[in-house]
Write a structure and sequence with these properties.
52% helix; six-stranded parallel β-sheet; 201 residues; alpha/beta
């Protein structure tokens, strides 16, 4: 019997997924959670074989939660479901801690099959999502530009970034400007959006 954990914040979808998987003779849903921070404690209690995790969870996003789950319970295989197709998310998810990555509009039979493949030790990645990730290419940003833009994305202002990185205010502004130029962005906020969607910060 394949024991499954479901992590999805939308109650209707979470219950529908549980009902769908529970119709199978060889699959049982042992626990459902609505928040990313609940995944590891639930896995500790129920020891699922497969975790079906929404990528966009409150508390802790799906990919981060998957990494934490993999660290504590490496035998629990993770299947990420997403309504988004950001290449950066897929590249992050394709690291060793995620065995499957599918869009939320996948057919029910494909989801069931994916759970079985993961439980058997295989991997399942939607081909369209994979192509999107491959097309994004490597980051054009330097390590310092990436660091400054990442800190800016957390809400830190240039002066604060300068103090934390032991740089001058002008240098931080230059890094932010050059990052925006390389990304073809209109401004710092647009640069953060572009880099985040591509998985570069």
């Amino acid at each position: 019997m394949i024991q499954v954990l479901i992590a999805e914040d939308m109650q209707l979808l979470r219950e529908a997924l549980a009902e769908l998987l529970s119709l199978e003779d060889d699959i049982t849903v042992v626990v459902q959670v609505a928040d990313g921070t609940q995944i590891v404690p639930a896995a500790e209690k129920y020891r699922p074989d497969v975790a079906v995790i929404d990528i966009d969870l409150p508390g802790l996003d799906g990919v981060t939660a998957a990494a934490a789950l993999h660290e504590r319970f490496p035998n629990c295989r993770v299947l990420i479901l997403t309504a988004l197709s950001r290449p950066g998310q897929l590249r992050r998810a394709l690291e060793p801690d995620v065995a499957g990555f599918l869009p939320k509009d996948v057919r029910p039979a494909e989801l069931v099959a994916a759970v079985r493949v993961l439980a058997a030790g295989g991997r399942v990645v939607d081909s369209a999502l994979a192509m999107t990730a491959l097309r994004a290419g490597p980051s054009p940003l330097t390590q310092r530009e990436t660091e400054v833009l990442r800190m800016s994305a957390t809400g830190a202002q240039p002066m604060e970034i300068a103090e934390r990185l032991f740089l001058t205010y002008g240098t931080v502004r230059n890094y932010l400007g050059s990052a925006a130029a390389k990304l073809g962005a209109r401004n710092r906020v647009d640069a953060i959006r572009v880099a985040t969607e591509a998985g570069w910060i």
